[in-house]
Amino acid sequence: MAIDFALSGEQEQLRDSVRVWLHDLYSFEQRRSAVQSPSSFRSAVWSAFANDLGILGMTFPERVGGSGLDAVATMVVMEEFGRALVLEPYLETVVICGGLLARAGGGRADETLERVGAGHEVLALAALEATSRYDITNVATTARRDSSGWRLDGTKAVVAAAPWASQLLVVARTAGSRGEREGLSLFLVSSSAPGVSMRSYPTIDARRAADVTLERVRVPTDSLIGEEGEAADAIEYSTDEAISAVSAEAVGLMSKLHEDTLEYAKQRRQFGQPIGRFQVLQHRLVDMYMEIELARSATYLATLRLPASAKERACAASAAKVTINKACRLVGQSAVQIHGGMGMTDELAVSHFFRRATAIELEFGTMDFHLARYASHQ
């Protein structure tokens, strides 16, 4: 049976709106300027995502002012974000934390979603720790009840977007021990709460992350998001959702890398002719294109399998991540090699795309991790 992967009219309109906005108002030079600023976060851009494009709340439920769109809409936006190399934490805030809050529901969660959709809030998921190795159950951070609510203690490692976040969605143990699925819970914690400290740093792709320490952090009772001790399935689903989203971003950035490299090969002359006429480079450009199309197909499958059973969803997500990681390496390295030494200079966009592609290889699991995960579900 044939499957139609064509976008609907509304999805094409969404893609075109985001692409035009980014083309007009999100140039490479503007991005470079933001990267060189102290925080690199531009609140005006974040507000524009909410007010001009309406994309921050588009996948949120209508009860919080959202549009209730599905994961395909996220895929469309993330691909365009990849093409423009967007810095802002849409993935961390909207896709990951927003998805967790929307599925959990409750007064505190819905209130936070409304603020995110309006562009007033940035969130980051503080889940993994120094020894987690992508295992969401390998968590030692604890949450214990006290007279005023909960007390959190522990340390989280490499929390993406944490330096920009107004609130953290913290994964902590209310029961059990490391490696157990039972006993994991989610808590909303203000990033400025007493006892919360961060060691912030830039990442290789010019974004920001932090190691977060929680020391006797007290939060009210309604900070618990969802059912106590039953967050493992929700976190696993959110991770697969994030993999499908970051895969779409990778397809977008690799497509732009291929287009820019092809254009360079047509212009750069060597031995009296454009280097694009050399057969070996033609073969390399075709290899790049084929890897991108394989990655695109795997991304579509991972996105469409999100509503399926846990096993089908996990297999599709891991297959996509393996395909994406392989493609990012080949396309990124080929683009740099064809550009020559200048391909790694800060002034050229290709180096920034290459760094982001390299970072994506490590996000949400390496190739070896996902090969093993896929095999475990067979």
Report on the structure:
It is a single chain. The mean pLDDT is 95. A four-stranded mixed sheet has the order 1-4-5-8, covered by helices on one side. A four-stranded antiparallel sheet has the order 2-3-7-6, with no helix packed on it. A two-stranded antiparallel ribbon has the order 9-10. The protein folds into three domains: 9-121, Butyryl-Coa Dehydrogenase, subunit A, domain 1; 124-230, Butyryl-CoA Dehydrogenase, subunit A, domain 2 (Beta Barrel); 233-376, Butyryl-CoA Dehydrogenase, subunit A, domain 3 (Up-down Bundle). It is built from eleven helices and ten strands. It is an alpha+beta fold and 378 residues long. Strand 6 and strand 7 form a beta hairpin. It is globular. 50% of the residues lie in helices and 16% in strands. It has helices at 9-25, 28-35, 43-51, 71-84, 90-104, 107-117, 232-267, 279-304, 310-339, 349-362, 367-376; strands at residues 123-126, 142-146, 149-160, 167-173, 184-190, 196-202, 208-219, 224-225, 269-270, 273-274.
